[in-house]
Design a protein that fits this description.
Layout (H helix, E strand, L loop, with lengths): L22 E5 L3 H7 L4 H22 L3 E8 L7 H24 L3 E5 L7 H14 L6 E8 L1 H17 L10 H6 L11 E4 L18 E4 L9 H13 L9
Bound molecules: farnesyl diphosphate.
Farnesyl diphosphate (FPP) binds next to helix 1, helix 2, strand 2 and helix 3.
Amino acid sequence: MTAKPIIRQVLPADLSQDRLPRHVAVIMDGNGRWAKNRGLPRIMGHRRGVDTLKRVLRYCSDWGVRALTAYAFSTENWGRPLEEVDFLMTLFERVLRQELAEMMEEDVRISFVGNLAALPQSLRAEIDRAVTQTTGNQGIQFTVATNYGGRQEIIQACRAIAIKVQQGHIQPEDIDETLFTHHLYTAEIGDPDLLIRTSGEMRISNFLLWQLAYAEIYVTKTLWPDFDQTEFHQALYDYQQRDRRFGKVR
Ligand code: FPP
């Protein structure tokens, strides 16, 4: 049997390869509303949301974006109805199991950020398996924020640094932006250049609070399950029109 050929999409002609964001982050909002609008249970929106995420990962990989980080579950999402939380945990586990072979084929390197210790044991096992197997892949870096909260991440970094100071490994004056960054979950991933949020909400909802300091923000009213190639193309096009000054003057 011959393997299914991978058909790669070419970068749309109006986008410049040189000015692509290196790292895109997404807040995948609107799954619940998408389902409600169709008279479906909320979980159907999350199911469709997975399809959208797979497609966005594919565009990023094909077009040359080097890293994609997706906000899958926040530290605040535990406050949702128990059935929805259970559904999401099971969904993450199943998707990881089902997609691992394809991620290997497509050279995707997956990692997770967040307080993973609090996740169900069976999900942690799938996470470990996927991270370990894809660790040598050279393609896109795909990060899933799961049980992630920006404030919680900053606090855990402070604690880790405080312990090092207490034990005499570093001095308070050694603490600078570089050292702090190395204690964040994202130490090896770097900061996003572009944050995309769907469903029109103008918030960052405790996502990558430190890392988004200079990201360009793109908000669309489109609900996440409807976020398609045209929408992603538009987000990148919009990004390429921005003048990124990082607080300086040209
Ligand atoms: C927000 O929409 C979406 C979520 C909290 C879940 C997103 C998760 C996925 C798309 C699955 C990703 C899977 C893997 C394995 C990475 P919402 O429910 O807040 O929508 P609403 O604001 O319309 O209610």
